[in-house]
Structure formats: structure tokens, C-alpha cells
């Protein structure tokens, strides 16, 4: 189900994109694409994709895979007369594939959030509104969520060290100063904004227009004014044991992102502060 309410194959926007990018979605070799995805776009392939040079065979597979994305982004940009296309997917492995595309000018926004909040969110039951059979969003145990959090965040740091422009933003900062963060991200993408371009965001709210997100959080179906407020339920509802476990598993990056309170920080940091 597209966010506009039509199914993907009936959404006029996505049909135009498919026609522009591939002639038609029917012309996409889905088996080939799935095989390529399994071969290159997986977290376990990141160490190989992070190297400075790829073996010719692998280089060819990665650029073939990235070309599908390049065609879709180009079609979306032309259709909407946009200068920048935002791919809201979140897996680091895709960014590692796209960095090998000769045509994509890749910039990455790396949103970080406290691992304890992330672990809490992953345990919640959320129904997929697009699913007629009442499927749930994916869930992970807190330990699994902590390990994924480590892997994905570490991968984005490494990506920056490989020369890809990566802008790290704390989730809490976006909630506190949404307008300022969006303005700064626009500059990061090379966009010249004027103040009135940001009239859709105010203090604690945003006005959302209709959209065509084809997957993701059920929030994508919301149109109109939405409140922007921090989701801090985890600070009350996460059990002490789980909180301790996730803190231990993710401590190095939690510290680097500034998420450890004074009594959670390791001893030597506390001494250093004095
Ligand atoms: Zn749509």
C-alpha cells in the first residue's frame, strides 16, 4: 500500500516512475535484482564494500545493482522536478553499494538515537496498516536490537572515513530544533533555501502533505499537522535489567554520541571530567 492510499500497482506516481526508469515495472528482472541484493546489499558484505578497491567481478555486480537505484532516483527527480532525492531507507549496506555508483552524488544523513530507546521500540508490537492480514512490524529482542544498533552505527562511521559525506544528527536534536536541523541538512545537500521554504515546520509541529512512501513506519499514512515530541516512553517502561544489558552491549558508541549520564559513564571518563 502506497502512502497515498492506492496500492503500489495502482499508484499513478509509482507507475510513472516505473515507466520512466525501466519502461515498466514489468520489465524489471526481479530475480536478477534479488540475486544481486543477496550478493552485495547485506550487512555482512560491508567489510568487503568498505575496501578502497573492489575485485573487478564484485565491482561489476555492485554497479549493476546501484544502477537500479540510480534509474529510480533519476526518474523521481525528473517527475517531481526535484534537485535532491531522499531515500528514507536505513540500512548501511545500501549506502555502501551506492557509493560505487559513478552517477549518484551520495550524501548520508546518519540519525542516531539512544540504544535503549531503540531497543524498546523494536520490542513493541506495531501492526502494519497496509497488511490485510494484520501483519506486525518486525520485532527484535533487546540483545539483538543492541547488536544491530552497534553494527549499523559503526558502519556509518566507517563510511565517513571512506570519504562519503555523512552528517550525523541526534534524534533528540531533530525533535528540539526541527527547523534548524532541516535547514542545515538542506545546505549539506547543496540546496539554497529561503526562510519561507521551511514554513511547513514550526515549534513542535510539522504539516505533512500527501506522499507516496511505499514502505516503512505506519506514520507515513498521516497527512496534515502532526505534533513533534520526543518519544521517551523507554525511560519509564524499559526494565532495569534490559536497560543495563543494552547499556553494556552498546557502551562505546553510547558514550561517543553523548548518551551516557554521569553515573553511567565509565570510571575513567568520570575522573577525566573532574
Ligand atoms: Zn502513491
Largest sheet: 3 strands, antiparallel
**Structure class:** mainly alpha
What amount of the residues lies in strands? 5-15%
Give me the strand/helix succession.
Answer: HHHHHEHHEHHEEEHHH
Over the alpha carbons, how many angstroms does the gyration radius reach? 20 Å
Bound molecules: zinc ion
Number of strands: 5
Q: What integer is the average pLDDT?
A: 91
Q: Could you describe the 3D structure shown?
A:
This protein is mainly α and 274 residues long. 49% of the residues lie in helices and 7% in strands. The protein contains twelve helices and five strands. A three-stranded antiparallel β-sheet has the order 3-4-5, with no helix packed on it. Strands 1-2 form a two-stranded parallel ribbon. Helix 1 crosses helix 4, helix 6 packs across helix 7 and helix 7 runs parallel beside helix 11. It starts with 11 loop residues before the first helix and ends with a helix. The model has no long low-confidence stretch (mean pLDDT 91). The structure holds zinc ion (ZN). The site of zinc ion has 7 residues, from helix 1. The site of zinc ion (ZN) has 7 residues, from helix 1.
Overview features:
mainly alpha; 12 helices; two-stranded parallel ribbon; 3-stranded antiparallel sheet; binds zinc ion; 274 residues
What are the SSEs and their pairings?
Layout: H1 12-22, H2 30-40, H3 46-49, H4 56-80, H5 92-98, E1 108-112, H6 115-123, H7 142-161, E2 166-170, H8 171-176, H9 178-188, E3 201-202, E4 205-208, E5 224-227, H10 233-237, H11 240-256, H12 267-273
Parallel strand pairs: 1-2
Antiparallel strand pairs: 3-4, 4-5
Helix pairs in contact: 1-4, 2-4, 5-7, 6-7, 7-11
Amino acid at each position: 500500500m502506497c502512502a497515498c492510499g492506492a496500492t503500489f500497482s495502482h499508484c499513478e506516481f509509482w507507475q510513472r516512475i516505473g515507466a520512466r526508469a525501466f519502461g515498466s515495472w514489468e520489465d524489471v528482472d526481479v530475480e536478477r535484482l534479488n540475486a544481486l541484493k543477496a550478493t552485495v546489499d547485506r550487512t555482512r558484505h560491508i567489510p568487503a564494500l568498505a575496501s578502497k578497491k573492489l575485485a573487478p567481478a564484485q565491482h561489476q555486480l555492485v554497479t549493476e545493482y546501484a544502477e537500479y537505484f540510480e534509474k529510480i532516483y533519476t526518474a523521481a527527480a525528473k517527475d517531481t522536478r526535484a534537485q535532491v532525492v531522499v531515500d528514507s531507507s536505513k540500512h548501511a549496506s545500501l549506502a555502501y553499494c551506492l557509493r560505487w555508483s559513478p552517477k549518484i552524488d551520495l550524501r548520508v544523513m546518519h540519525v542516531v538515537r539512544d540504544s535503549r530507546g531503540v531497543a524498546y521500540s523494536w520490542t513493541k508490537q506495531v501492526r502494519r496498516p497496509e497488511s490485510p492480514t494484520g501483519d506486525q512490524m518486525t520485532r527484535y529482542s533487546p540483545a539483538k536490537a543492541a547488536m544491530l544498533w552497534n553494527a549499523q552505527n559503526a558502519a556509518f562511521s566507517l563510511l565517513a572515513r571512506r570519504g562519503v559525506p555523512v552528517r550525523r544528527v541526534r534524534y533528540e536534536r531533530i525533535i528540539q530544533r526541527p527547523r534548524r536541523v532541516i535547514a542545515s541538512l538542506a545546505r549539506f545537500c547543496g540546496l539554497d533555501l529561503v526562510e519561507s521554504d521551511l514554513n511547513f515546520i514550526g515549534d513542535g509541529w510539522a504539516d505533512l502533505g500527501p506522499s507516496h512512501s511505499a514502505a516503512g513506519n505506519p506514520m507515513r499514512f498521516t497527512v496534515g499537522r502532526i505534533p513533534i515530541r520526543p518519544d521517551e516512553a523507554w525511560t519509564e517502561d524499559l526494565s532495569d535489567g534490559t536497560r543495563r544489558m543494552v547499556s553494556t552491549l552498546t557502551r562505546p558508541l553510547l558514550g561517543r554520541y553523548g548518551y551516557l549520564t554521569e553515573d553511567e559513564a565509565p570510571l575513567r571518563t568520570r575522573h577525566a571530567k573532574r
